[in-house]
Amino acid sequence: MQLHGFNIIGTEISPGVSTFRAVNPSNSQTLEPAFHEAGAGDVDRAVRLAEDAFAGFRRQSPGRRAAFLNAIASGIEANDAVLQRANEETGLPPERLKMERGRTVGQLRMFAKLIDEGSWVDARIDPADAGRKPFPKPDLRRMLIPIGPVAIFAASNFPLAFSVAGGDAASALAAGCPVVVKSHPGHPGTSEIVAGIIVEAARATGMPAGVFSMLHGRGHEVGMALVKHPLVKAVGFTGSLRGGRALFDAAAARVEPIPVYAEMGSINPVFVLPGALAERGRQIAEGLKASVTMGVGQFCTNPGLVIGIDSEPARQFAGQMAGLMAEAAPGTMLYPGLRDAYVQGAERFAKVPGVKVAAQSRTPADANKTQATPTLYAADVRTYLANHTLREELFGPATLLLTAGSREELEQVAATLDGHLTATIQGTAKDLEEYRGLIALLERKVGRLLFNGFPTGVEVSSAMQHGGPY
Amino acid sequence: MQLHGFNIIGTEISPGVSTFRAVNPSNSQTLEPAFHEAGAGDVDRAVRLAEDAFAGFRRQSPGRRAAFLNAIASGIEANDAVLQRANEETGLPPERLKMERGRTVGQLRMFAKLIDEGSWVDARIDPADAGRKPFPKPDLRRMLIPIGPVAIFAASNFPLAFSVAGGDAASALAAGCPVVVKSHPGHPGTSEIVAGIIVEAARATGMPAGVFSMLHGRGHEVGMALVKHPLVKAVGFTGSLRGGRALFDAAAARVEPIPVYAEMGSINPVFVLPGALAERGRQIAEGLKASVTMGVGQFCTNPGLVIGIDSEPARQFAGQMAGLMAEAAPGTMLYPGLRDAYVQGAERFAKVPGVKVAAQSRTPADANKTQATPTLYAADVRTYLANHTLREELFGPATLLLTAGSREELEQVAATLDGHLTATIQGTAKDLEEYRGLIALLERKVGRLLFNGFPTGVEVSSAMQHGGPY
Predict the structure, then answer these.
(1) What is the distance between the alpha carbons of residues A118 and A120, in angstroms, rounded to a whole number?
(2) How do beta strands A124-126 and A7-9 pair?
(3) For B256-291, how does the pLDDT look when each residue is reduced to its tens digit (9 = 90+)?
(4) Residues of chain A with C-beta less than 8 angstroms from the C-beta of B145
(5) What whole-number distance in Å separates Cα of residue A279 and Cα of residue A316?
């Protein structure tokens, strides 16, 4: 597979203002070719082309837009080079990437089916009544319509399913909105391959040029220019709270504010209630360890906080968690910058007075393989509440185990949580009855509440809520 | 009816930090009693009480919440004192207020029916599949839940239907959200009467105290404090673009941003196409004159801009509009501040080089009766495009008639419009066929597009879109 490294603006390619290369995190080797960072002119051209394409694109019949999405799905399904390149750029294992490809294809086909079915437009028709008194009643019709060009920010941690042809792009294209993707610099080659598949699918199914563009960029400039462009009408974002919030603020401050659908950093607290701890503490510890270290902790639903009330079973549970985390192997993170952020975050955690490193992988991390060390921190609730650092996401294979002195302390942690994607309660039927107040608290803090599960793993289903406070 | 003039915080009344009195705009007489402006402490108490009430209120069965709304509706329906006081405070005629009361009651009952029916929660259930490979599938359930205390800003121009027990309050209470209303200082007594009915309905139907509070205030302090209060979770607003945007900005800048559902200043442009002008120019002029002057122009959907392409029928139409507007009688505006703003806005319009006062009511306005003079302005498209003043809402019985030199100029006006609540097209079947591009443009600018109608008049129906860009 020959990669060109350029920005893709409709059916054309465009050199940028500077270049960068991807790095294979598994061996720290630089990968070819050089990728071109888009300039302000590229952003403007891509958005204008999207706007030009919009009128024609939104008028395509649902069946034809569905054919476009299905063609993207088939193109990705048939492409093995993308798996190879994604593995080189992200260090994610081939098996995982194969599964992720299946998910990506499934998402695209789910949206294709949805537009073909059509009820998503939520049509409401209230017929006229010329004889109504004192005024005749007009015919009223209301439905959802596409909003216009959408800027989408690809995530690093799902180079296929939450990236160039991920859920955000699938839903925008399904709705009839042209898309300008800001690719993630961690996997530019993977992005180029997928972008090529989309451009080819658009050509093959007769979609207007400009329905899709993709721009590269390492800094904030390309993204900020997209969000501030007057012709961009909505934003889809997956990434850190800091980056997402900056885009949200810029979007809200526009003369015409636009919606930002953002999935951002999340702690995903897990509350382990007394009955469950006594009944199946070991089993919960094993599940949690798997959830914390799965994918080297690089999931937006990674559980970063576990809390229980002090008791003999709780102490046993803490010991089991420590043992399991010590056995966990270090893993390759997606790119060096992410690993560095993990190391710095870990240092910040460890420096907080009252925070103890309760366990750390026995195997040393290999820096050349961009590895991160699975780590378990422990603290009491007072320490947690007094130190805001502990509320920030530590993206990677680490979690903080909090011991509450009482039920009140546990509920206090829940009450002071910021918004998150998920919260999990591990509890027996009796626990859940007794902790109704906790459930009521958490319902208002998170998009999704899990019972006796683990937060990692997001189903592709219209019944799945995968959003938090934004 | 004895009015107390205090803020209403749950079941208690509270004096404020300063007082003001309402004025009867029909005769400029000050009305008793003095009303108390809330202080920061009142805002905090009302919101905390709403938060305290939330847990209990949201758990009420839909039937019981419906009973609460129906009790408010019956209380308002049975109350004639509120019509009397509203007439004194707003100058709106008794017949109009009676109709508005019917609308208010209808809205409350519509929402009561909706919660009783229940499908608005949009429940989605995706059952578990323990045998799925490679991972078992969990049981997934998703539905809408109430968000928490809602701050609602009452409008001046509908003292019943868009005020204390208006559509915003009805929908928030229906959803299970406690409400803190910031009353409009133009009709504080009307507000107190309605608030009393709500408090009594809450008591009679066993709702928790704090499910409803109402605060008075003339300046921005009370409203801004509400929007910034961490326990307020959403905002409903009806009013000016300037005021609403300030609240929107404050809400977006919070650590936890909250949604603002705002219905703000709108120009509601009317495009009169050539075929319609030739076929029924006179009829359109009559309808427009009625729409512009109805309710002394004090509707959010008042048509502030009318545009056609220069032609003999267009010139006739302009003459007819001028004749009709000259015959229109001045009317009493809601309160002196609104009339003053209209007079100042009219001066700003008239000062723009190229803008002509094409017609003005022959009857002089009576300042003592807070009257506004119906006025027709005329300009060409170039003048319009060059002067931003002409794009600002002139709230009152005035409209600007634009003559385009060509179809391109007419479409240029459409393309440069900001977002509005409505746009109207007057056109024959042939016009609509020929001006498909104009329709496509306007679809993206406004919440509601009208064909051969007039924008004033908002139906109470789930098929009615009554929102604009916010």
Answers:
(1) 5
(2) unpaired
(3) 999 999 999 899 999 999 999 999 999 999 999 999
(4) 443
(5) 12
* DSSP secondary structure letter of residue A255: S
Question: Which pairs count as long-range contacts for B80-87, CB under 8 Å and 24+ apart, including other chains?
Answer: B81/B1, B81/B193, B82/B160, B82/B190, B82/B193, B82/B194, B82/B197, B84/B1, B85/B1, B85/B3, B85/B187, B85/B189, B85/B190, B85/B193, B86/B159, B86/B160, B86/B187, B86/B190
In whole angstroms, give the CA distance from residue A88 to residue A353: 40
Tokens of A349: 């955690």
Nearest residue to B35 (alpha-carbon basis) of B215, B178, B162, B282:
B215
Rama region for B424: left / alpha / beta (φ>0; ψ in -120 to 50; rest):
beta
Residue A364 per-residue DSSP state: P
The three-class DSSP label of residue A431 is helix
Structure tokens at B415: 């393309």
Q: Which residues of A79-117 are buried (b: 16+ CB within 10 A; e: fewer)?
A: beebbbbbbbbbbbeeebbeebbebbbebbbbbbebbbe
**B411 in contact with chain A, both atoms CB, cutoff 8 A:** no
Does the annotation count A221 as an active-site position? Answer: no
pLDDT digit string, tens, across residues B244-262: 999 999 999 999 999 999 9
CA distance A123 to B463: 8
Tokens of residue A16, six digits: 């940028």
ipTM summary value: 0.93
- Smallest CA–CA distance, residue B353 to chain A, in Å, is 26
- Distance spanning both ends of chain B, measured CA to CA: 38
Amino acid at B260: V
Buried b (16+ CB within 10 A) or exposed e, B183-212: bbbbbbbbbbbbbbbbbebbeebebbbbbb
Q: What is the model's pTM?
A: 0.95
To test the contact with chain A by mutation, choose from B141, B294, B450 the residue with the greatest count of A C-beta atoms within 10 A, namely B141
Residues 6+ apart with CB under 8 A from B287: B454
